[in-house]
Design a protein that fits this description.
With about 450 residues, this protein is α/β, with parallel strands linked by helices. It has 16 helices and 20 strands. About 35% of the residues lie in helices and about 25% in strands. The strands form 2 sheets. It has an 18-stranded mixed sheet that branches. It is globular and about 60 Å long.
Length: about 450
């Protein structure tokens, strides 16, 4: 991705200058969560909180010996995160750039009242210009358009690109400016980044996942592509997004509005941000947003699910630099017989992250974790499916930066129907990957080992 290497280096340097003490992730103890968890999780719908009998019915499936008890897992997450489940949604998986951009632009074009858009990267390239043109067009049609973009994620983008949208009536916020002179009342917090990717249209349709606005997503990856790319220049990035309709979109809307107001920005213009919710489907989801210095909601939910897994843990992750607790949870799962498989990059836009992640291969492989590296295309997806019934898609990588210092958003989807879709996608990624065996890994060269060793010094900041 254009400017991506510079973004990683500049971010790391800034963070090294501005932070003295390292923050820490919380201990996640499933036994303590069980001690305070309710018997039945809270589930909200378009008509309010569901009665206990209805909530139980929605999470009734249980295979005690070989998969998660969804009801118990949901109650644990309630206790750990304080965020309720939301019923009555549709959740559509979107893979790679072209399909996702088409869906997002279609939704924007159909907007009648407002568009709230939040992104880490918003490049000034052919795709970025098309996206900006469409937002300006909708604003001129009387639709309220609000945009939050990260100031490090867009560090190589000329200010004129955003000024053109602003002159067209679009309201924009640069999240946590790099330039201290542009900081308003909330202080200079350059180490804290907005890594979310969210689009909310009319308060009824929401998109989130790993996809930024960049020409990198103008091409398809080999994943589910009708034609195989002839060379690397024809290959797009492999990523995953979701389109949500139903009451859960209101949870996404709250995350956006909270972020806008926390930046000490001007008030949002009036719009119908919270229309009466309607039941759109049968999916039960949990929308988790994390903040630097917050309650670590995404980290806690993910770690609890890994710790409770009985059958399988299938992770697809762009930047994999696990903290000690996550590393141990994966090792423990493999040792108790859980099928733990990781699909990780073989090429990356960040060499530091790539080699820092590979430094963890030896203990994982020795424990029985199976590791695969995706061929040809750059992997940018961040997805997990556990026991085929607990799934998450979002912006969060499995690294300390994502959990501690980034604002992120993930959607958890409960149930085997969506889990099957996730498993099918995971199996396809496996077919497009090479397995890294323990024997082959032990015989890697000195240069590779040296890169891993050096990258580990930076792993906290990556």
């Amino acid at each position: 991705m254009k400017h991506s290497t510079a973004r990683h280096w500049i971010a790391a340097l800034l963070m090294g200058w501005t932070v003295v003490a390292c923050a820490q992730l919380p201990a996640v103890d499933p036994d303590k969560a069980k001690a305070v968890a309710a018997d039945t999780p809270v589930i909200k719908s378009a008509n309010g909180v569901l009665p206990e009998s209805r909530a139980n019915a929605l999470l009734k499936k249980r295979w005690a010996r070989n998969t998660l008890d969804l009801k118990a897992q949901a109650a644990l997450e309630d206790a750990a995160t304080g965020v309720p489940l939301i019923a009555g949604n549709t959740v559509k998986l979107l893979f790679d750039g072209p399909a996702t951009m088409a869906e997002m632009m279609k939704a924007i074009a159909a907007a009648k009242n407002h568009i709230n858009f939040e992104t880490y990267i918003f490049d000034q390239d052919e795709l970025g210009e098309k996206f900006a043109d469409l937002l300006i067009q909708k604003q001129k049609q009387g639709v309220t358009v609000n945009v939050i973009y990260d100031s490090v994620g867009t560090i190589g983008v000329p200010q004129e690109f955003f000024d053109r949208m602003r002159q067209g009536g679009v309201r924009l916020i640069a999240y946590n400016p790099v330039n201290p002179a542009k900081v308003r009342g909330n202080g200079w917090k350059v180490n804290n980044r907005d890594h979310r990717k969210m689009l909310i249209v009319d308060g009824r349709v929401g998109f989130t996942g790993g996809i930024n606005i960049s020409d990198t997503y103008a091409k398809s990856s080999p994943f589910r592509s009708k034609s195989r790319p002839r060379d690397k220049d024809d290959v797009g990035w492999r990523d995953t997004h979701v389109k949500i309709e139903g009451p859960a979109v209101q949870a996404m809307q709250w995350l956006f509005i909270q972020h806008w107001t926390a930046q000490d920005a001007e008030d949002l213009r009036e719009a119908e941000y919270f229309p009466n919710p309607i039941i759109a489907g049968d999916k039960v989801v949990r929308v988790l947003g994390s903040e630097p210095g917050g309650k670590f909601e995404i980290y806690k939910a993910l770690l609890l699910a890994i710790q409770q897994a009985k059958k399988s843990i299938h992770i697809t992750c762009a930047y994999f630099v696990p903290d000690d607790q996550t590393l141990q949870a994966l090792i423990d799962a493999a040792k108790r017989g859980v099928d733990v498989k990781l699909v990780l990059p073989s090429v990356s836009d960040s060499g530091l992250v790539f080699h820092a992640g590979r430094a963890f291969y030896t203990p994982l492989l020795e424990a029985g974790v199976k590791i695969y590296e995706l061929k040809l295309s750059v992997l940018h997806a961040k997805t997990v499916v556990i026991d085929g019934v607990w799934s998450t898609v979002g912006s969060t990588n499995i690294d300390t930066r994502s959990f501690l210092h980034n604002a992120e958003v993930n959607v958890i989807v409960m149930g085997d129907a969506f889990g099957l879709e996730m498993e099918n996608a995971f199996r396809e990624d496996l077919r497009n990957s090479n397995e890294m065996t323990l024997d082959a890994w032990k015989h890697r060269g000195f240069v590779v080992r040296a890169k891993e060793f050096m990258a580990r010094f930076w792993d906290y900041w990556l």
